[in-house]
């Protein structure tokens, strides 16, 4: 009788953040910042913000995160947008939202300063 393949558990919370950061590092994302939003926002528990050198790089970073988490952890985003354009890719895993931006876009919106706990 063939063995059943054990399915990987879908990631959430801090384990998901760690997997995202690892996937970002694999694609050589720059200036990775993890922002803990628990107790600050009901939209997500974590933001992970990073940047790439150019639109091709940011697209590759975002695609790499989506592909790695799906293949390695059986975890797919609830929604994603901007991956093809590459200026600002948003990958929404519900409790973890990943922002991959060009440096000028990141500087303009400065998400890190908006979500600092006071």
Describe this structure in words.
This protein is an alpha+beta fold. It has one domain: Beta Polymerase, domain 2. It has 4 helices and 5 strands, in the order H-E-E-H-E-E-E-H-H. It has helices at 13-26, 55-73, 103-109, 111-114; strands at 30-36, 46-51, 79-81, 88-92, 96-101. A 5-stranded mixed beta sheet has the order 1-2-5-4-3. The protein is globular, with a radius of gyration of 15 Å. The model has no long low-confidence stretch (mean pLDDT 89).
Features:
118 residues; single chain; Beta Polymerase, domain 2; five-stranded mixed sheet
Concise synopsis of the structure shown:
By secondary structure, the chain is α+β, with helices and mostly antiparallel strands. It has helices at residues 13-26, 55-73, 103-109, 111-114, and strands at residues 30-36, 46-51, 79-81, 88-92, 96-101.
Distance between the termini: 59 Å
Q: Looking across the biggest beta sheet, what order are the strands in?
A: 1-2-5-4-3
Question: What best-fitting shape do the alpha-carbon axes yield?
Answer: globular
- Counting DSSP E segments of at least 2 residues, the number of strands comes to 5
